[in-house]
Amino acid sequence: MPSPLERVPDERPREPDAARAPTTRAAPVVVGVVPCYDVVATCADVVRAVAGRVDRVIAVDDGSRDGTGEALAAVAGASGGRVEVLVHPENRGKGEALLRAFRHALDTGPCDVVVTVDGDGQHDASCLDAVVAPCLSGAALSIGTRTGFRAMPWKSHFGNTLTSAVLRVLRPGCPPDTQSGFRAHARAFVERVVEHVVPGRYETELCILLLALDGGPRVATVEIPTVYVDGNAATHFRPLADGLRIYRALAARLLHRGRRPGRAARRPGGAAGPSAGPGR
Known about the structure:
Layout: E1 30-36, H1 43-51, E2 56-62, H2 68-77, E3 83-88, H3 94-107, E4 113-116, H4 128-132, E5 141-146, H5 154-170, E6 183-186, H6 187-196, H7 203-215, E7 219-224, H8 239-255
């Protein structure tokens, strides 16, 4: 009889390697995030379209006053639990909406990629798989790049063209469309975003892009069509006020390269200034 510490060889016949059951890898979990502010005419269709292509959707009603919250609640109620709505009692800005949804995605279930789609209908959900794909093969950030800049309303065209030109001089690897809200983020990068970026308004997306460019991970671009509903009438982007916020964030990053991207002093009580919703 062997001693209690002596290993007894397993004399059962071993199956050949080829006969063993292959290890199956679970499919990646994609979470959609849809920030919404006063987009009652489009938000329900956008959320339903996104929900048809991802595992779950987190929509954020950022203090809407036009019935957007009720429209989102109706979609969520009919979704079988695949759509969840987060509510801000008052408008806090697109950046606040995005980062709250990012944190929620990380905290509430499986999440391999987070894809953001604006609630105003300017992003074609049929392109979602293409925008997500680079994040499944190593990219930290994938940006849906609009190709028809000349078709943009003047507010979007002016802001995007100027910002892109400045950034591409300062950062040659910067994508041409810096203001597109149609983006996919790998989970590891989402974790960096919620750790390092202080949320605000439209400048938050620039801070996220700079974080990706500073960190060295690959930033991918995927061409998407330029779509605007009623000449982008639903946009809350203000060329002067929001443009200044964007350039202030860029200047702060360039002047303080040793600091974390997106770090900026917040106003007392977390106030973020007057309205600026997710659409451009």
